[in-house]
Amino acid sequence: xxxxxxxxxxxxxxxxxxxxxxxxxxxxxxxxxxxxxxxxxxxxxxxxxxxxxxxxxxxxxxxxxxxxxxxxxxxxxxxxxxxxxxxxxxxxxxxxxxxxxxxxxxxxxxxxxxxxxxxxxxxxxxxxxxxxxxxxxxxxxxxxxxxxxxxxxxxxxxxxxxxxxxxxxxxxxxxxxxxxxxxxxxxxxxxxxxxxxxxxxxxxxxxxxxxxxxxxxxxxxxxxxxxxxxxxxxxxxxxxxxxxxxxxxxxxxxxxxxxxxxxxxxxxxxxxxxxxxxxxxxxxxxxxxxxxxxxxxxxxxxxxxxxxxxxxxxxxxxxxxxxxxxxxxxxxxxxxxxxxxxxxxxxxxxxxxxxxxxxxxxxxxxxxxxxxxxxxxxxxxxxxxxxxxxxxxxxxxxxxxxxxxxxxxxxxxxxxxxxxxxxxxxxxxxxxxxxxxxxxxxxxxxxxxxxxxxxxxxxxxxxxxxxxxxxxxxxxxxxxxxxxxxxxxxxxxxx
Length: 495
What we know:
Helices cover 51% and strands 11% of the residues. The chain contains 24 helices and 12 strands. It has helices at 17-20, 26-33, 37-59, 64-80, 82-95, 106-119, 131-136, 138-144, 154-161, 178-192, 204-221, 247-253, 274-285, 320-324, 340-344, 346-351, 362-373, 378-382, 392-396, 403-416, 420-437, 439-451, 465-468, 481-494; strands spanning 5-6, 9-10, 99-103, 124-127, 148-151, 224-227, 231-233, 238-243, 257-263, 267-268, 293-298, 310-316.
């Protein structure tokens, strides 16, 4: 639908590979994105700035390791008893005046939300930044029903106005610089509502003010809002949204109807568990001691008259139950969407978020997306290989997800699917195993390789060519090490 119009307004960019798993494999997409010098410059500057600030914020806490262990333990406990805590959450939300809906997949979740909006008689909604709604392609589904969804997060607004896709968990428009953002605002804001001011420059203050003026009229007239949730407290039925701009607070308090779409893994058992995550999340994501806006709500409008009069919670599965059944892979469901792993990943920094073909890019996307969508498509089967296994992602993860372990586990799953490339790989490993089990065969092979080293090609033939496309073959020595050792060891012994 990208580039078209609906009800006189631009339509949303198609969800494409983000929601469906179609599109080129990671190596194919990365081969293009890594040649984009402006993209690499934008990413390098942004990720290095964020990770340096995060390191300073984390260093302020002497008990960071203990907090990290506590976050991991709470999440693991919750996942082991997820059925119990979800039912407790449903009961608490219902008692507080809300309505809980269960969605097995994206199609069911989109149908529920669309029906709820249509029942209000409205044809537009304001949205708080939400990875879950991106995952299911909610904006596109609502547009198909004649409903326009306005993104109110500054970065999401940039992405929406630019007919673009998010490329980062925390900063969806991280791949854009200030000049590009100014051009997008100047060219597209008028088509969505209030136009950009005349003479708009790329000053951050001017860009923020342009967005504020553009969005304010939407906040004031909106009757329906859609959001996600960072956490859901089973004990009280409370939902939590943390953000930095205040747009979320506007969406959560002004509209009459609030619809929250949240993955089932976002539940935590007790109110006091928030103490741990409210320290882990802001320092790992925005490198702040606490988020400027932390909104918590339980059910519908209270006696003070603030908040929605009609609240709906859509609990989303969409592959999470299947991931939960995997004893190694389930740890990805601990993720609190802080994006720290993206900011330290050398692969993400060079390839960018769009190469992952998912709303979940970077290391966490490489382990989460194949579990939610399966590994049948080329892009999803390639994601577990989108890593150097350096381990930096594990070191910064605030809930200690061992991403390298899950990557290797998923690679094993993909290899088990077969295919010509994997059959050749198994044959090569089998041959290497035979040689290593027979020292005489290995020694003979080493001597032959040493004598023929001048005849070796600089690029491997056949499937091996993919390896040497980006690497140089190591030079072979004139004699094998074992021959050199035998010769020099005998000389030493003779002395």
